[in-house]
């Protein structure tokens, strides 16, 4: 008798162990779908109603929101850290709205007091020369990246490079503007999105030659492993600005591929080669494009375009590329 009761208890225990989902979404009894009820913390089968779990812990927020605005208002966490702020975005600031907790405008005397508090808050946030340097440089990087249309990833990398330069004491004798521009130029090349140095000089407050010197110095001292520029990386940008056809863009890549295989690109400006390849490709596809237009977009001289154009077509014809 006792053996029979023991067998029954064991079978009940085994059944309890079996009443667990084989996976997270399938009921082992009827193969139905398992749903989670956030109100009572239960996991139940939609088909047979079997309860697998109750009073489960909800690891989400204790509040409910139905729109993105409500979610932003109720969230008690701040923005992620960023390399583009001197304090990485960890500090707080006094709001500029000049309103009280009820949304009402404050008096003139209170506004003056808040302005003084903002001034002192700003001074305490940049209490030494190191932080003031970072604030100015990172602001310059953000401004130039915005003017050039560079993505957030490039800006963050530029911020990291500039911080490394500051930590290694590379700035004495160098201008903040020059080193910040060099950091952004290096970051763009690291991400495979090079731009002509002239474009950086146009949005910077320093001359092109000083940017070149700062970039070489930064690259050497930080040991940056930056691959030589590939002329084909300039093709999408130039083709978009010049509004050429897809066929012309494809032919320009063919021209550059032939030139690279025959070492014609050695010692030449990548931007100049890309501009000349696009100019030559439009001639092969019977599109109207002037040297002056290409020169303005690529920031290279018309003489450079003419010279590279002749070299590219010569090696292209020597290799018997079909004229399609």
Q: Approximately how much helix is present in the residues?
A: 55-70%
Taken together, the total number of domains comes to 3
Indicate the CATH architecture of the largest domain. Answer: Orthogonal Bundle
Give the tally of β-strands: 3
CATH fold category name of the largest domain: Cyclin A, domain 1
Structural classification: mainly alpha
Task: Output the CATH class name of the largest domain.
Answer: Mainly Alpha
- What is the N-to-C succession of helices and strands? HEEEHHHHHHHHHHHH
| N-end to C-end Cα span | 94 Å
Q: Largest beta sheet, briefly?
A: 3 strands, antiparallel
What is the count of helical runs? 13
CATH superfamily of the largest domain: Cyclin-like
Work out the strand percent.
under 5%
Question: What's the overall geometry?
Answer: extended
Going across the biggest sheet, name each strand in turn: 1-2-3
Low-confidence parts: 1-22
InterPro entries: Cyclin-like_dom (IPR013763), Cyclin-like_sf (IPR036915), TFIIB (IPR000812), TFIIB_arc (IPR023484), TFIIB_CS (IPR023486), TFIIB_cyclin (IPR013150), Znf_TFIIB (IPR013137)
GO biological process, one term: transcription preinitiation complex assembly
Pfam families: TFIIB, Zn_Ribbon_TF
Biased composition (Polar residues): 23-39
